[in-house]
Design brief:
The complex is a heterodimer of chains A (about 80) and B (about 575).
Chain A: E1 2-7, E2 22-25, H1 32-38, E3 48-51, E4 54-56, E5 67-71
Parallel strand pairs in A: 1-5
Antiparallel strand pairs in A: 1-2, 3-4, 3-5
Chain B: E1 3-8, E2 13-18, H1 28-39, E3 53-57, E4 71-76, E5 83-88, H2 92-99, E6 101-107, E7 115-120, E8 123-128, H3 137-148, E9 153-156, H4 159-162, E10 170-173, E11 179-183, H5 188-194, E12 197-202, H6 215-231, H7 233-242, H8 247-253, H9 270-273, H10 275-285, E13 288-291, E14 302-306, E15 312-315, H11 319-325, H12 334-347, H13 351-363, H14 372-384, H15 387-393, H16 396-403, E16 410-411, E17 414-415, H17 425-433, H18 446-449, H19 465-482, H20 489-494, H21 496-510, H22 518-536, H23 549-552, H24 566-572
Parallel strand pairs in B: 1-6, 7-12
Antiparallel strand pairs in B: 1-2, 3-4, 3-6, 4-5, 7-8, 9-10, 9-12, 10-11, 13-14, 14-15, 16-17
Helix pairs in contact in B: 1-19, 1-22, 6-21, 11-13, 12-14, 13-16, 14-15, 15-16, 17-19, 19-22, 19-24
Classes of the chains: A mainly beta (about 80), B alpha+beta (about 575).
Chain lengths: ~80, ~575
């Protein structure tokens, strides 16, 4: 399957050359954790995880075409 | 002993009195709401001389406590018709603390002239300054500082307040003396303007910080509080680096970023106006991505935004302002948004209410969504006082009424801020049931349902949202009354040491024994006072609701409507279930 990984804020420093998103291929049964590792992001760094705009955990199973959004701890108002 | 200042604009008198017993334990919102509910007749015209305007600092004002310089303004709102408290950062709260003035109560209205209240270590006086009539805020502050001291803090209204536009703010100067921090919501500036009071000048020369009852304990807790703020990733890392606009991307990803007048939860131009992009632009132009709005704050979430020519445009381009005038209007150009923000600073008008009003005008077809130059023209009409500009300056509901547009995102006449209530339903509960009208700060369910602070709750679920909002509304009322920045809630929700040191500072400052267990009851009591006022002013259960379109139009991408049952909203407001006898 192919999924998009979109890190935000300080997590972007793990992507090469100022990229803001990464399209990666994963095997069947892959989880968010697999996608995070493949993107080269330390798995303890994301504090908020979304799959297709819904809150998820690192153990969530992924499907082809999913968008994974990763955030450090953020807040504001 | 701290003082209360009683100003009568009709008699042009100023009295300095000892703080009465009933107000000693109240700062900020607790102070303003108590005084407004006791002294303003709930049924009065907000612009009549009967309405009082109350300005209050917090319980730690003037001390070294980080973030404790919030300034509250309270009155009967011309926008909502109910009680209002709106607060801001800036330097005035701490200045009041140094001057020993907990609160300023302004009643009556000047029959003629433009007046300035000057407070210094020797006392307070009203001075007539007709030269400042309708002056824009930067020029007004420059003139006032030249008269009363180059370091004076200024609380003022701009031309919008003097012209009684219902979205007018009360502005507070920042550490550079720029008029950029606003008590933005609910038209408090219009009430101040209606009284003929252009500004309050606070000259702290020759004053000292108030002496804590227990100096050693105060210093210890102040240090621990700073450590807690620095240790939490939100207040220690994300907010200093990116400011409040770090939220644009996450709220957009969550499908809750209201786009083109609340017609979608995702904006295709978000990356261009995000906190990440803004930080790059600010650094490239030589501005500051990290800036304090008040001295001693370690969160430093403000910024200094320069235009393409290097000229100063805004200090503290904030998430809400960027959204209201950006995604909400389909605009993805930060420079256009910063120019709008500058106009609002000059006029003294709420950037949320005005941005939403412009979005309503776009929805009505006056200009198309995405038309940045058109938005600047409309803001120019507010300044010029054209009929359309006046309607826009009176807020989103007035703009909708003038333009024949019934689909208007307001509660109690006040525009919704930057979280769609269909995608973060706890915020919908807060918007509907807050005593203040639609107000994100009144019970910030985003913290728990998106940001994983203080637990977690699915933002799209129906269950649990009302209880979450109710709990947060009481906690917020308590924090607003201590007079600290609401952002301390992030560490307070996660780290017991943060709350312990905050209360430790209050107790050491005043010699009290306040505990964490006292806070919910303190917050509930303030909410009860506010609800009683609103009921007496004529607001009913029908005012504790979202506009109907949020219940019928599903929001992309999640295709949810707002579906929290009305009886749960009523319960948040303390209304008995239908058919039940009031005990």
């Amino acid at each position: 399957m192919t999924v998009d990984v979109r890190p935000f804020a300080t997590l972007r420093r793990h992507l090469p050359g100022g990229e803001t998103a990464l399209r990666i291929r994963l095997g069947d049964g892959a989880t968010v954790r697999d996608a995070v590792r493949r993107a080269g992001i330390p798995e303890e760094s994301p504090r908020i995880v979304m799959v297709n705009g819904r809150l998820a955990t690192l153990d969530a199973a992924l499907a082809d075409g999913d968008a994974v959004s990763l955030f450090p701890a953020v807040g504001g108002g | 002993m701290e003082k209360i200042l009683k100003v009568d604009m009709g008699e042009r008198s100023v009295r300095v009195e000892e703080l009465p017993e009933g107000l000693r334990r109240l700062g900020g919102r607790g102070f303003t709401s108590s005084v407004v509910s006791a002294e303003t007749p709930p049924g009065c015209d907000p612009f009549s001389s009967e309405n009082v305007l109350v300005i209050a600092c917090g319980l730690l004002a003037g001390t070294a406590a980080s973030t404790a310089g919030r300034l509250s303004v309270g009155t009967k709102s011309p926008l909502t018709g109910g009680i209002k408290e709106s607060n801001a950062g800036g330097t005035a709260g701490h200045a009041m603390g140094r001057l020993g003035v907990r609160g300023i109560v302004v009643r009556g209205a000047a029959r003629e002239g433009t007046w300035v209240l000057v407070i210094d270590r020797d006392g307070a006086r009203l001075e007539r300054r007709d030269d400042l009539r309708l002056a824009e805020s930067y020029a007004a502050v420059a003139a006032l500082r030249s008269s009363y001291g180059g370091d004076a803090s200024v609380i003022l209204v701009g031309p919008a307040g003097e012209r009684r536009l219902k979205a007018a703010s009360v502005i507070v100067t920042d550490p550079e003396g720029r008029p950029t921090r606003h008590c933005g919501r609910g038209g408090t500036g219009a009430v101040m303007g209606s009284k003929g009071l252009k500004a309050v000048v606070l000259d702290t020369r020759g004053t000292r910080p108030p002496a804590p009852a227990d100096r050693g304990a105060f210093a210890m807790h102040a240090k621990r509080f700073v450590e807690a703020l620095r240790a939490h990733p939100v207040t220690g890392e994300a907010l200093p680096a990116y400011g409040t606009n770090v939220l644009a991307n996450i709220i957009n990803e969550a499908g809750a970023y209201p786009t083109r007048c609340f017609s979608s939860g995702r904006f295709e131009g978000t990356e261009k106006v995000s906190g990440e992009t803004m930080r790059d632009v600010i650094i490239e132009r030589g501005g500051s991505p990290t800036h304090v709005c008040q001295p001693g704050c370690v969160i430093r979430c403000s910024n200094v935004y320069l235009g393409p020519d290097g000229g100063h445009l805004a200090s503290g381009l904030e998430y809400e302002s960027i959204w209201a005038n950006g995604a909400n209007c389909g605009i993805d150009d930060l420079d256009v948004i910063a120019r709008l923000d500058r106009l609002y600073d000059e006029l003294g008008i709420d950037s949320i209410e005005t941005g939403v009003a412009i979005g309503v005008a776009m929805q009505a077809g006056v200009i198309p969504f995405g038309d940045g130059e058109g938005a600047l023209r409309l803001a120019g009409e507010i300044a010029a006082g054209t009929p359309l500009g006046t309607a826009l300056g009176n807020g989103a509901a007035a703009a909708g009424a003038r333009l024949g547009c019934a689909r208007v995102p307001v509660v109690k006449g006040q525009a919704l801020p930057a979280y769609d209530p269909r995608a973060i339903k706890g915020m919908g509960v807060t918007y509907a049931t807050s005593t203040m009208g639609a107000d994100h700060t009144a019970g910030y369910a985003v913290a728990t349902s998106i940001l994983n602070c203080g637990g977690s709750l699915d933002p799209l679920a129906t269950e649990g949202q009302a209880a979450l909002s109710k709990r947060l509304q009481a906690a917020t009322a308590a924090l607003d009354s201590i007079g600290v920045c609401l952002f301390v809630a992030f560490p307070v929700l996660d780290d017991p040491a943060a709350l312990e040191s905050l209360l430790g500072m209050v107790n050491a400052r005043h010699g009290w024994g306040m505990t964490a267990a006292d806070l919910p009851a303190m917050g509930e009591e303030i909410l009860r006072i506010e609800r009683r006022f609103n009921a007496a002013a004529g607001l009913t259960a029908a005012d504790d609701r979202l506009p109907a379109f949020f219940l019928t139009e599903p929001l992309e991408p999640h295709r949810h409507v707002f579906d929290i049952p009305e009886r749960e909203l009523d319960e948040v407001c303390g209304r008995p279930p239908e058919g039940a006898e009031r005990p």
